[in-house]
UniProtKB/TrEMBL annotation:
Protein known as: Ion channel protein
Species assigned in the record: Streptomyces sp. 900116325
Pfam families xref list: Voltage_CLC
Location(s) in or outside the cell: Membrane
CDD domains, sorted: Voltage_gated_ClC
Record's keyword annotation contains Transmembrane: yes
Transmembrane segments: 17-42, 62-86, 107-125, 152-177, 234-256, 268-290, 310-329, 336-354, 360-375, 382-407
Chief location bin: membrane
Keywords, sorted A to Z: Membrane, Transmembrane, Transmembrane helix
Membrane-related topology note: Multi-pass membrane protein
Length: 425
């Protein structure tokens, strides 16, 4: 969740806003480069762990024994790093959100190391939370030394916007996420655009940097949506609501899973056991339920009729359990990308069960529902669902379906805990 932030710029004049452009662009580019560097390093290590090493041992890379061994070893490795590095790679990840106050900069090296290990090892978490935390910490540390009078909230907003823009390949995602907290503060006419001016520039810089260097793509190769019908209205509401309920099941299980792992007391033991559970889940759900989920989502979308409704449902449930396990046993990572895979699998399950439901609509609605429950970010959920299918024809139905979905999740516990283990509301 995006933490509350004070007013960044109060109806700033054009000159004051213009002064934000250079630092915003620098922060956005730097945020994207850090994300890109960590992602490339994790991909190289992933190739070694899941291709080179099993081939050298004449073992199937995605065989059940190898998945169990690799996830357990990843948990052990991450636990040992967290136990030994300075700052223990930051606070308990179950207590952190997407945008939080800056960590001390000397914690960041350990945080990035365990993030690379988790991404490469197949843990069901994405890079967004730790990379955003790292960029916020570094930007805040440098910004306070270069311009000590600048409000801390500005540096936090620039770094988070740059990272989110790079993650999604567009500044719109950053603007939508930050606007939910910024607009809530009220203000003078024009404040809604004055306040995110700098973050929007940072998000644009991060998105362009990532797009030019890595060419990310989030669209799925689904059959085009044929256009709305009366039956689609009911389908969209039912699928979104069902997906939101699955997401809420994960949210309600979150504190119990966290309490169970914390009962083991030692981080190495917690993460080793968590890795073992993830390995067993991977053996049960198949290799598509491993890793952060971005590449796996594309594989599912490329063949929407390649699995039965039961197989899609099993993937959605296994990935949900894997997400809760990974996020509560101590692995550092984000929840958005794994939640997207849950939604895609659930949407394709709905299409496989009822062929009359278009796959693009089913996927978009399921992703919307799961993200509403897990992130509580309405704009982000709508944006991600629409971008995945790349068809504006689903937008009216998504807007309608978001209403019952939001009624189901609003006021419920969040997938984030207080320090005492109780959920945020």
């Amino acid at each position: 969740m995006v933490s509350d932030s004070p007013v960044l710029v109060e109806s700033a004049p054009a000159r004051r806003l213009a002064l934000l452009i250079v630092p915003a662009l620098v922060v956005g580019v730097a945020s994207a480069l850090i994300l890109l560097g960590i992602s490339l390093l994790a991909e190289q290590l992933q190739d070694v762990l899941w291709e080179t090493l099993p081939q050298a041992l004449s073992i199937g890379g995605y065989s059940s024994p190898w998945m169990i061994v690799m996830l357990t070893a990843t948990g052990l490795a991450v636990g040992l790093v967290i136990r030994t590095v300075h700052g223990h790679a930051g606070p308990d990840p179950a207590t952190t959100g997407l945008v939080d106050p800056p960590m001390p900069p000397d914690v960041i090296p350990g945080l990035l190391v365990v993030t690379v290990l988790a991404l490469a090892g197949g843990v069901s978490l994405g890079p967004e939370n730790p990379i955003t935390a790292a960029n916020i910490a570094l930007t805040f540390w440098l910004g306070r030394r270069i311009a000590p009078q600048t409000p801390a909230a500005l540096w936090i907003a620039l770094a988070s916007a740059g990272t989110i823009g790079a993650l999604f390949g567009t500044p719109i995602a950053a603007a939508l996420i930050l606007s939910e907290s910024l607009a809530a503060d009220g203000g003078a006419p024009g404040a809604l655009w004055d306040r995110p001016f700098g973050p929007l520039a940072a998000g644009a810089a991060g998105a362009l940097t990532m797009s030019l260097l890595a060419h990310p793509s989030f669209g799925l190769s689904l059959p085009p949506y044929p256009g709305p019908h009366w039956g689609d209205l009911l389908s969209s509401v039912v699928i979104t609501s069902a997906a939101a309920l699955l997401g809420l099941a994960a949210v309600y299980a979150f504190p119990y899973a966290h309490r169970a792992f914390r009962a083991l007391r030692h981080p190495v033991l917690m993460l080793t056991c968590g890795g073992l559970v993830l390995g067993l889940l991977g053996a049960l759900g198949g290799h598509l339920t491993l890793f952060k989920g971005l590449d796996e989502v594309k594989e599912l979308g490329a063949d929407p009729n390649g699995w039965s409704a039961g197989q899609f449902a099993a993937m959605a449930v296994v990935k949900t359990v894997a997400l809760v396990t990974a996020a509560t046993c101590g692995f550092r990572g984000g929840r958005i990308f794994p939640a997207v895979l849950v939604g895609v699998a659930l949407g394709l399950c709905a299409h496989a069960a009822v062929d009359a439901v278009p796959p693009a609509l089913a996927v978009a609605c399921a992703v919307l529902g799961v993200l509403l429950a897990i992130t509580r970010q309405g704009w982000l959920s709508l944006f991600t669902a629409a971008v995945l299918v790349g068809d504006t024809g689903v937008l009216p139905l998504l807007c309608v379906a978001s209403l019952p979905g939001w009624l189901l999740v609003t006021g419920r516990p969040q997938m984030q805990l207080h320090g005492d283990g109780t959920p945020l509301r």
